[in-house]
Amino acid sequence: METDAALLIAAGLRGLHLHAMPGGLYALYRIDAGRIVPCAAWQDVDAVRALLGAEEDISLRAAAERDGLRWPDTPAAVLDALARRPVRAA
């Protein structure tokens, strides 16, 4: 099972923000023209993984790479992902 860090990275690569909620649940949202746009709330980790393209046998990283996103491999790339600056695979 992926960690919260992997969920944060996967969300960031897709231009989404991940928010931890009470009870081990999560919300996903994006910012559009300075406005918060809710995407999903009160989701468990499996639902968030599915929303980010992962499946039971497909990791968040594999799902991102399948969708043309480059999984960060350096600390700077992780920060870029978390800063919501998606990088497409070459």
Strand content: 15-25%
Strand order, largest beta sheet: 1-2-3
Alpha carbon gap, first and last residue? 28 Å
Q: How does the major sheet shape up?
A: 3 strands, antiparallel
Describe the structure.
- It is a single chain.
- The chain is an alpha+beta fold and 90 residues long.
- Helix content is 36%, strand content 24%.
- It contains four helices and three strands.
- A three-stranded antiparallel sheet has the order 1-2-3.
- The mean pLDDT is 88.
SSE blueprint:
Blueprint: H1 4-13, E1 17-21, E2 25-32, E3 35-43, H2 45-51, H3 60-66, H4 75-82
Antiparallel strand pairs: 1-2, 2-3
Helix pairs in contact: 1-4
Characteristic key phrases:
single chain, 90 residues, alpha+beta, 3-stranded antiparallel β-sheet
Summarize the structure.
This protein is of the alpha+beta class and 90 residues long.
